[in-house]
Amino acid sequence: MEETPKKVRRYDIDWLRVILFALLIPFHVGIGVYWNLYGDEINPNLDGLSSEERWEIAENGNDYTSESVDFPSMILHWMHQWRLAGLFMISGMGTAFAFRNRTWDIFLNERVKRLLVPMFFGAWTMGFAGSILTEGKDMDLMALTGEFLWGIVWRSLFFWVPFVGKLFALGHLWFLWNLFQYSLFLTPVFYLVRNYPDGQMARFLRSLFTLPKRSGVLLLLPFVLVLTEILFKPWFPGYIGVGYEWFWFFVFFAFGYACIVAKDEYYEFIESHRMLITCLTLLWTIAFVWIRLEQKNTGIPYVDGGWLDKGIIHNEMTILACIIHSFHAWFWCLTIFSWGAYLLNKPSKNLTYFNQGVYPFYIVHMPLTFAGLKISGELGLKNSFAIIVATVFVGLTCWIFFEGVKRTRVTRFLFGIKEIKKEKYAENNPAIEET
Fold first, then answer.
1. Is the Cα dihedral 395, 400, 405, 407 positive or negative?
2. Domains contained in the chain, number
3. Is residue 10 within 8 Å of 343, Cβ to Cβ?
4. Helical spans, DSSP H, in 35-103
5. Where are the alpha helices (DSSP H) in 299-421?
6. Does the residue 377 lie in any domain?
7. Is 139 left (phi over 0), alpha (psi -120 to 50) or beta?
8. Nearest-angstrom CA–CA distance, 398 and 15
9. Is 389 contained in some domain?
């Protein structure tokens, strides 16, 4: 009698999901300090300065923008290139597991509950709280109530509008909206692969990891990312998942799904080519730093996109920038997944707890970030000290909030906390279905 294959759990994917989401807190704190994205009144580095002093800073180089090339700003810009890409890949992996034992209609129904419900509730509540903190509104209870109710209306009506809807209605929760769209558009592919595991689509996805000299993973897949940039990047800069980023992250999501379809071939590749991947990643990082400095020197947004404003559709430098940007992000994703497989594929009794905390932390952290930066400013802290204090504050208050909302069925539903049955948790990768 043939023995049933033993299911092997991949704890590394769960851990990477937790780690990459956790990096969101210091990243959002950091860009509020070094890039001044939340306004002068929140940035502790500008706290206490007069308007004339702030204008002088802007005139002498405007250090507090994403164009800065000082070390902290470069670290933030470097992290931004692969952290979200890695999360979208993990989301694609989680989707592959989620679709295995579901019909397409059950899958989409669960996507609505797991993505759109937390997105809307978070936009209504955390978006409102964030606007109060950043705009410094001083209103009585009646005015605040009216503002909150009006916010529910206009956020619900305009969330889907490209750029404007994400920037003003969804804010940091745009990630959930993109995930829902990607899941919806790729459902026919999920259906074909699940129902026909030996069909052409499934064989094609697995073949990407078995091409001679591993050219599929090392060249073909990142080249698809490059083509995406070449087609869409000149027209609009990437920002909060719009412009070229919408298509670029879509490709990363699809690649994550393909990794699980070709699970054995994928893990064999990243585990046997770990050092090669790491060395190539270091080379692409050097190239990224160079193209980032060129962007600063020329004023052409090679990395960020939208160079049509400079009268350019494409030239040699923009094509080279697309290549460097996509290969850099792809190889950093491969690096974190390969080293994650090596170092993090270990069980932990805390993993379930951390996984359930991902969505609540993500949903509530933004207004708490604004509050943490204000507190740092009140304490007279600047730069790294402000970031450390604000990050600790945000982490602790998010944890307290999570402890509160996880205790009732209603709040668990509203904040996307998935119930994980003990008998199911022992199976193959159920926790990453949460993304």
1. positive
2. 1
3. no
4. 51-59, 71-98
5. 316-343, 351-378, 383-405, 409-414
6. yes
7. beta
8. 19
9. yes
Q: What percent of the chain has pLDDT over 90?
A: 68
Is residue 2, in this structure, part of any structural domain at all?
no
The neighbour count for residue 254, using CB atoms within 10 Å, is 21
Confidence of residue 116 (pLDDT cuts 50, 70, 90): very high
State the residue range of the domain holding 229: 11-52+62-434
Distance between CA atoms of 44 and 237, rounded to whole angstroms? 28
Residues 73-76: contacts with CB under 8 Å, at least 24 apart: 73/34, 73/35, 74/289, 74/292, 75/30, 76/27, 76/30, 76/31, 76/34, 76/35
CA atoms within 13 A on the CB side of 351: 23
In a domain, 185, yes or no: yes
3-state SS, residue 127: helix
Token pair, residue 254, equals 């699809």
Q: What is the pTM of this model?
A: 0.92
The string of pLDDT tens digits covering residues 383-411 is 999 999 999 999 999 999 999 999 999 99
Higher confidence at residue 349 or residue 26?
26
- Amino acid symbol at 402: F
* Residues 410-425: tens digit of each pLDDT: 999 999 998 766 544 4
| pLDDT recorded at residue 50 | 63
Of 349, 364, 351, nearest to 400 by C-alpha is 364
